[in-house]
Design goal:
The protein has about 210 residues and is of the alpha+beta class. The protein contains 5 helices and 9 strands, in the order ββαββαβββαββαα. The chain is elongated and about 70 Å long.
Length: about 210
Amino acid sequence: MVRPGWNNRGTMHATCLADPTLVLNKNWLPIQVCTVRRAFTMLFKDLARVVEPDDFSLYDFESWSDLSIPRGESFVQGVGDRIRVPEVIVLHNCDRFNRPRVVFTRRNLFRRDRNSCQYCGKRCTTENLSIDHVIPRCAGGIGSWTNCVVACLACNARKGGRTIKQVGMRLLRDPAEPPAQSAFTLHVTRRKASWDHFVSEAYWNTELKP
């Protein structure tokens, strides 16, 4: 039997079907982001439940379809009815959890070092900061959490393509990868407020090249 509002192929038509939905495993840990279209497919196949972020209630496809749509909420328009877009779903039988790692990006590097030069300690605007390779690239240094630091333009120019030992400079702290607990890296540029119940402050995910 086809649910009213769905066509004979079990699909719905709406521009928001490509929007992101957060996916939790059965332990309520975030594991990925899928499209609204994929979320509806998993609900229709009874592989997942919708999570209502305000009170953590769970809904299967039928009960979710029967809910009224609050003013301002996104929905998909079916043949005969409208269904609210699920922003968070939880899977029935999935224990998978990839340990999150903060993606190595320019923005995240500035965030780790708090927009402060790691040589002189001066806090600057991003326009007056640069990324310095502790071991210069000309000496085999790579772009990584442990070899890159934020530096003011003056300190970066002073150091140039030399090591800190050669130039007589020192780091205020050893560069390190931010702890995994500090962020769950979501591969999506649009983040929804309802996800804050399940995901800590996320880092951006456009990777820097070595």
